[in-house]
Amino acid sequence: MAETTEAEYRLLNAMSETTQYSLVELVESSGVRRERVGRLLAELIGDGYVTKYGQGERTEYRLSPTGVGKRAMMRGIAKDGPVGWGEFLKAASTAHHQAGIAATREQMAEVPLTDYDRDRCDASLRLQHEQRAFDSAELIRRQRMLAAAVTHGQLLDVFDGLQPPALYGDESAPPAAHPLQKAGSALQTGFMVVRLLFCLPFFLAGIGILTGASKPEEYLGAAMFIGGSIFFAYPVLRTVFDKLWASRTRRPPR
């Protein structure tokens, strides 16, 4: 990633959609120079990714729901490296989905908790305790906080540092049939077909030269045409082979 993108990525990682941070705190946690942090914050606020609170020395910042989605997309690209159209659109779809969850969570901050919500939260605490995320004393402490909580916003303290229950939508991934993913898959298939059609004339020309070749230079020319077309078409052929092999291995035995 370029320097500016890397600095932006580090700054977004240092921020949260639920906690406000001062400029000094963001400089320390991101490791980015103060001047660069100031410029990036101004750009992110202008684009709607960061929300600003207060004035002067008391100014604090936190991610907006849109910023949560942008951070999720940048994390995916940083983790997986360069991606194709299908993967990029899938990342955009995931980011949009997570931004919607963050917006719903923020809108429900003042909504009273129901008995169903409390049961889901208690079950989540017990499950994470069984997975040894914390000890029994911490479980009792958080259950007491849950019992005293009145609104959804107070659940932030109950699940501080833990995975919250999915009360605001499926937190894992958007549906596989999302329109963006369909468009990305169709676009990727189109590129594969065009690439094969581009290689086919060169491959056939090489075969034609090879059948009538009698001189070393003619054999060399045929090898260049055939080898070049196969080399250029190899990524497409490999993708098709992998998909056929995957479908064959998933087929249940008779």
Note down, in words, how this protein is organized.
- The chain has ten helices and three strands, in the order αβααββααααααα.
- Helices cover 68% and strands 4% of the residues.
- It has helices spanning 3-13, 23-30, 34-46, 65-80, 85-107, 115-130, 136-148, 155-158, 179-211, 216-250; strands spanning 21-22, 50-53, 60-63.
- The chain has a three-stranded antiparallel beta sheet.
- The chain has 254 residues and is mainly α.
Q: Give the total of beta strands.
A: 3
Run of helices and strands: HEHHEEHHHHHHH
Average pLDDT works out at: 77
Largest sheet: 3 strands, antiparallel
- The share of residues in helices is 55-70%
Coarse structural class: mainly alpha
Name the overall outline.
elongated
Strand content: under 5%
Strand order of the largest sheet: 1-3-2
